[in-house]
């Protein structure tokens, strides 16, 4: 088994404390051969912010697509302490704010509201996001991650979206809300809640590698969704379910509003 | 921040080597209050097999839904060595084959073809899957995970599906292929490749907690998919893309066929 894994493993050449981040899956190996077929292009550099309380699925969707798009993926945190996701799976950062490459092709921020609020209130996180965001080719988020971009001043004057239950906080930080699932305005790409990360992932893969490459990834992931219910948006779910979800989160949503207001007051207009 | 996390943390009471698996997300905390509202029902016990080379997204989709459905989730491996997923994120098992609860409500197997083949050839894995599968209320898989169920003899005489590129191996192990995205036959539930795990997750959540609960989870995850391309199934993608994906995986697909044939020859008819 180990030999088999090693044979299929692909090193991404990441500066890991725990050694290299190995992408061992045969699907990724197959995509690597596809990337090679496409010529000796350099791998796009992706910096993915990770933080305690983040939603694993917010990261796993885009990360899976971007791994299949043969990217150089950096999981960035303030320090190298393991990060705890919503479902309890712990993620080891591969680099730190200080050591992350300066010029990223893509800066990405996932969501997870309690953790998002902490990030919006953390100077070091905002400084990192603001610095890399000003230099990255693409500045992106899924779910409540957009609030971190907003708090770092990166959405001022841009159309954007976020998880539906915090979208109304974006204008506080100077963004104009759009209700598309994935919103592209110049080099800002923001996506809706959690599962929107897969749609976002395929869109950024198409930007980085072309439509045909993205189509092949979609087929590899068998992304032909068939939701068993039609309650995936506030409009489809209806007012009762929406009120129920909002009421159960009243406290944390109020904290997010305070964080957005504080961020708007802090940053230069 | 730590205080805030602790306040929101929910212990699932899992027998972890690294301490308890904390579900710290506010969304999960909110769902917990919903579960309490529904009465003092016990949490469904979920055993999720994890193994090297598995696809993180195969696990993250169903696990996120099941966490929101307030389940007791066990990440089960042969031993407590960390498991490396396709994207390089390492997952710590929470229990072992020996220590996993005997009577699970749900046994779940994710995919990841190189790892799936190793599992199909591993006696200890098959013994575990066969034992818990015979006793579990629901025997389930996503993606190539169905091949592990098949190799353990659990799909003989059942309709089932798997990732589209290995579906034709199911009949070797006595299953009848169905081309639905999520196939339910008596207590067997098998789903298609990778992203089908989210559709599966919502279906098993509805079974465990009721349709209204599953609808609220779908809204919480904003699962209103908008794939940017229509290449998520072999039929939609067309023969050229399909051939391309298959050719790049010819070797591992041939290995999977051998493993399926060996498994069929090994197990009693």
Characterise this structure:
- 2 copies of one chain form a homodimer.
- With 269 residues, chain A is α/β, with parallel strands linked by helices.
- The first copy, chain A, has a single domain (3-266), classed as Class I glutamine amidotransferase (GATase) domain (Rossmann fold, 3-Layer(aba) Sandwich).
- Chain A is 43% helix and 16% strand.
- The first copy, chain A, has 11 helices and 13 strands.
- In chain A, the strands form 4 sheets. The first copy, chain A, has a 7-stranded mixed β-sheet with strand order 7-4-3-8-9-13-12, sandwiched between helices. In chain A, strands 1-2 form a two-stranded antiparallel ribbon.
- In chain A, β5 (83-84) and β6 (90-91) form a beta hairpin.
- In chain A, α4 runs parallel beside α6 (145-151).
- The longest helix of chain A is centred in the last third of the chain and has 17 residues, at 250-266.
- Mean pLDDT of chain A is 89; it is low at 1-22.
- The interface between A and B is large, with 87 and 87 residues.
Kindly list the characteristics that best describe this protein.
homodimer; 269 residues; alpha/beta; Rossmann fold; 7-stranded mixed beta sheet; two-stranded antiparallel sheet; 11 helices; 13 strands; globular; disordered N terminus
């Amino acid at each position: 088994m180990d030999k088999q894994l090693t044979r299929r493993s692909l090193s991404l050449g990441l500066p890991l404390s725990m050694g290299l981040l190995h992408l061992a899956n045969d699907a990724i190996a197959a995509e690597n051969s596809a990337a090679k077929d496409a010529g000796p292009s350099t791998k796009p550099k992706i910096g993915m912010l990770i933080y305690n309380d983040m939603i694993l699925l917010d990261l796993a969707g885009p990360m899976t697509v971007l791994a299949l798009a043969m990217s150089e993926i950096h999981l960035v945190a303030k320090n190298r302490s393991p990060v705890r996701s919503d479902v309890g799976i712990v993620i080891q950062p591969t680099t730190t704010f200080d050591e992350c490459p300066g010029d990223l092709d893509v800066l990405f921020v996932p969501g997870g509201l309690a953790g998002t609020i902490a990030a919006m209130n953390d100077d070091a996180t905002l400084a990192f996001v603001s610095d890399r965001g000003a230099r990255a080719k693409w500045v992106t988020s899924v779910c409540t991650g957009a609030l971190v971009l907003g708090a770092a001043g990166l959405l001022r004057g841009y159309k954007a979206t976020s998880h539906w239950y915090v979208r109304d906080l974006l204008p506080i930080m100077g963004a104009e809300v759009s209700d598309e699932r994935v919103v592209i305005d110049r080099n800002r790409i923001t996506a809706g809640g959690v599962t929107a990360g897969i749609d976002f992932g395929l869109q950024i893969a198409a930007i980085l590698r072309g439509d045909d490459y993205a189509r092949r990834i979609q087929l590899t992931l068998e992304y032909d969704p068939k939701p068993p219910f039609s309650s995936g948006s506030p409009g489809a779910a209806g007012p009762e379910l929406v009120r129920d979800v909002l009421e159960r989160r009243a406290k944390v949503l109020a904290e997010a509003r305070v964080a957005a207001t504080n961020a708007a007051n802090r940053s230069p207009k």
